[in-house]
């Protein structure tokens, strides 16, 4: 009888109920909210579903993220090894390879002024950097936090790892991906606040056709120029441009399809679940995380506003040929930010098609955020 009692007691104490804290229940609730937003509302489900599920699992079974030194058998949890690929910059770089293979750079090539709009949207990053220092972060931590303003999860993870801010990587990555998913909610109010109805209704001229030679030369030239000036950006910019060269060269169709489909989705699963698993209640529910979330939102808002205001300036310079709404797409949430520009413009005039025009600044924003990360690494001698 005592054997049966002892066995039942051991089984009961192996359940999660005896180990869950109030913080774990809060994080489980947050994970369920993220799943709702992803599944019911359609907010970047490819990102939020794996992140939310990783968050759910680690707060039920913390050992799934434990390192070898924390385990009695010396073998780490599943997500620990996934997370190492984040820290080593492998998964962020592979994400950029897939993005390059999926993305048409034609709108950026056809309208090079988009580079300026993409650059203007990076103002939020550098503005948040100084604000983060005022919030008490050291210079490297401030840089890692401020890059959230680019709404670029892979770059945020990449920079945090390079600046040895692994302890902040989880909150930074979750904040960055959350804001990427919430672009349709966060951006429109600021886009409307800083533009007039007349400006939002501006119809832009059709983009010129881009030749195959231009499409092939573009990734090669960008790689040479950017990586020569900022060699530390090579893992991100280099892989982004390699993926695009796969797409545009026309001679490696299998590589292009693999990078943009199978490989991309495998990497998203590994990265999303490992990032979500870094949000245990002990690691996530603290004042530092709250400051990171606030600063990330401020940076993203500033980036959106800066892009729109610079779009207004270009609208004035070109005498109404540029719709300022496309400036908001300068953050690098591809292609969500471009779709938001299209949606807000179509609300004023359903016949107005801004999507392809907005894709120019959107792609430029991806490059711009990577360059911003490279600037920080150069400043700190990484």
What's this, in brief?
The protein is an all-alpha fold and 382 residues long. It contains 21 helices and no strands.
Record the SSE blueprint.
Elements: H1 2-14, H2 22-39, H3 45-60, H4 78-87, H5 90-102, H6 106-110, H7 114-120, H8 123-134, H9 139-146, H10 153-162, H11 166-181, H12 183-193, H13 197-200, H14 212-229, H15 234-249, H16 253-260, H17 262-277, H18 281-284, H19 287-317, H20 336-348, H21 355-379
Helix pairs in contact: 2-3, 3-11, 3-17, 4-17, 5-10, 5-15, 5-16, 5-17, 7-19, 7-21, 8-9, 8-19, 9-10, 10-11, 10-21, 11-19, 12-19, 12-20, 14-15, 15-16, 16-17, 20-21
Task: Note down, in words, how this protein is organized.
This protein has 382 residues and is mainly alpha-helical. It contains 21 helices and no strands. The longest helix has 31 residues. The chain starts with a helix and ends with a helix. The relative contact order is 0.18. The mean pLDDT is 89.
